[in-house]
Amino acid sequence: MPAEGSSSGPIAVEKFTSGVKTPVTLRTIADMAGVHPSTVSRALRSDAAPNETNRRIAQLADALEYRPDVAAASLRTRRSDAVGVLVHRLTDVVQAILFEAIESTLTEHGYQAIVANTYDDPGEQRRRVELLQSRRVDGLILADAHLDARYVDWVASRGIPFVLVNRHAGGYPAVTLDDYEGGRLVGNHLSDLGHRQVAILRGIEHSSASSERVRGCLDALAARGIAVPPDAIEATTLSASTGRDAVHRVLERHPGVSAVFAVNDFDALGAMIGLRELGREPGIDVAVVGFNDVPVAEAARLTTVRSPHNVMGAAATTMLLDVMQGKTVESVRLAPELIVRATSCPPA
Is the pTM of this model over 0.70? Predict the structure, then answer.
């Protein structure tokens, strides 16, 4: 066997096209290079010195199509270089945008993102966390927190680094929009247009985002002397179908409603469908305002509140990496922006 670190010319690797392929390990490369496996391990690190031995080992590893054993490395280092991301449903456009930003930022830092849908169900939330911990993830990003904080308190008790995104709960580190201010922007906008009879599609109660948007809008309207009756506020599940149905129910009770605020763009789009079914044109007969400014909102010419979810996801990821390093972090609230389009109009 040649002396460790010696060079014997270009590397030739014979490739077999039949039979069962034997996994290539550090020992395989070490035997072929005539070095100790620990030398191979050091040479294949990203910070390895650019010397002849390391270049030769890297060339050999590439020729053999060597892939590190992530599970074995995790057992040795007690790190997986993976982060769990819990969303209530990845088919939700906002959650998908968040995840893309999180995954992109994690990749830049050498981590893998593992996403789990919890469907906002408390039992499923705990099962998914336990599953991710069994995979030895190094941290968690929770996009599915509930206002009562019981789920987040339970996550905290398990001793794994985590942060919240899009929703806040229990005073834990979070990156969110200033949803209350977003609701105030809507309330002031509708009152400036002259609306006195407003309906609200309030989304889901356990979401801090939905709740604060409603509260901000109600407070802004109240400051202008405009009261919204409790039965003009309808629960939805943040979908076009529930927005459509909610508008039908509200207008049956309050036919004089001249403006609808939905805490989610898809609720707002559903409301537009429902209004047309009732013979009222959005932006002419009834003003409609949504929230989030998802891509389809511009195509629908929907007035909405813009939330920078790509920025939010990236910031939450950076915050988690700081938490994983033991740094002290503080919650961040991003500023909303009102985007006025064709569905804004004064009372008919």
Answer: yes
